Amino acid sequence: MTQETTHKGSCHCGKIAFEVDGNFDSVMECNCSHCSRKGYLLSFVPRTALRITTDETAISTYTFNRHAIRHQFCPQCGCAPFGLGTGRDGVATAAINVRCLEGVELTTLERKFVDGRSF
Fold it and tell me: What does the pLDDT look like over 71-112, one tens digit per residue?
């Protein structure tokens, strides 16, 4: 298990940049229609662990199905670095697309499969 640290991340063009505190040694790989098309590798953290370091007005939002997660993406490059929502416990949560973090070696991550198509 890796120690919780601060990571920097961004969309492809850099218009959306952020910092996030967390332990990113395992990720969720979901087969729902959205995650599978985008290729997300997600890790969930408390919303307070995510700090957006660029102008938040540059962020666009996409919702679908139950509109429970506000998928945040860059209208310039189309990259979706994180989503925002509320966990089952009522706590504000951020779903971090670990593919958008600097310096994370994706081949070393434990992948936990989630059958999102069944939700």
Answer: 999 999 999 999 999 988 999 999 999 999 999 999 999 999
Task: List all residues 6 or more positions away from 99 whose beta carbon is below 8 Å from its beta carbon.
Answer: 39, 40, 41, 106
| Contact present, 27 and 88 (Cβ < 8 Å) | no
Tokens encoding 107:
């081949």
| SS3 label, residue 33 | helix
The answer to whether the pTM exceeds 0.70 is: yes
Q: Tell me the C-alpha to C-alpha distance, in Å, between residue 47 and each of 13, 56, 79.
A: 23, 15, 20
Let me know how many helices (H) and strands (E) the chain has, helices first.
Answer: 1, 10
| Span between the terminal Cα atoms of the chain, in Å | 29
Q: Which residues are paired to 52 by β-bridges?
A: 18
